[in-house]
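Structural prep section.
Before we set up the soaks we want a predicted structure of the protein with guanosine-5'-triphosphate in place, mainly to decide which crystallisation condition to try first. Input record follows.
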Amino acid sequence: MAEGEVERTPGPVVALLIGMAGSGKSTLFHRIHYEAAQTGKRCYFINLDPAALEVPVEANIDIRDTVDYKGVMREYSLGPNGAIVTSLNLFATQFGDVMDILDERTKEFDYIIIDTPGQIEAFTWSASGQLIAESLASTLATCVVYVVDTPRSRSPATFMSNMVYACSILHKLRLPLVAAFNKIDVQPPETCFSWMDDFEAFHVALDEDDSSEAYVTSLHRSMSLVLDEFYRVLDRVAVSAATGEGIDNFWAKLDASRLLYDETY
Ligand code: GTP
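Run finished without errors. Recording the tokens verbatim:
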């Protein structure tokens, strides 16, 4: 290998789909499955949402085959969120077996796509979520795809909250992060992108938005300067899980995240 060249991690790219409830993770999971079949991309699908009523595609590995979410609620007298975290904990104790399967089959797939629970913090702030992410990243090029609900990020204040959350996930999981601006069939992503590229444009939008108190606007201004650094390491792609628009670029972003993973880990 030439001097300075980075060694490429063998095997597929792992994409952990993470996002606010309703951002479109499961629909994107479904869309990726469909597009992969159309274009011959070799994908392996894992569902980590124990509370999913329906998984729109048959996942190769499904947490629900191992852990009975409703049974966990009853057995441990837990509410819905506690039961999701406990189910993930139970599954995490067996994640070594999942890693054995993935390590054995690395040559068979280009991408491993993982759907995570609707309640974002159940994965990002739990010990089991961290353990699962670290296990994957220990041998496979792993990235987080942070799914953004673009129509709900129309206002500068909501956009900023979403980006602060994405930033916290980067710090917590320390993996390459691709922000997938979803639902572009409803709301084009250009405004959000312009705010990411130019904090002055964001400040103008803040000034024009009269829904926030003055101190909140001032806080948002300061935060946007901090986030400016974050945006430099954040890759982004605009997609519609509903129509399939942008999915070509989505694959390209996963490939690019492998390069970042190889340089960083
Ligand atoms: P949780 O499992 O609750 O976290 O939701 P999720 O993030 O998996 O979102 P889900 O895929 O269930 O989508 C939420 C809603 O958004 C559904 O009504 C979807 O049909 C809709 N939706 C998802 N993606 C798109 C999109 O690209 N365009 C449009 N118009 N609607 C979408």
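Observations: Strands lie at 13-19, 43-47, 61-62, 111-115, 141-149, 177-182, 235-238.
Flagged for discussion at group meeting.
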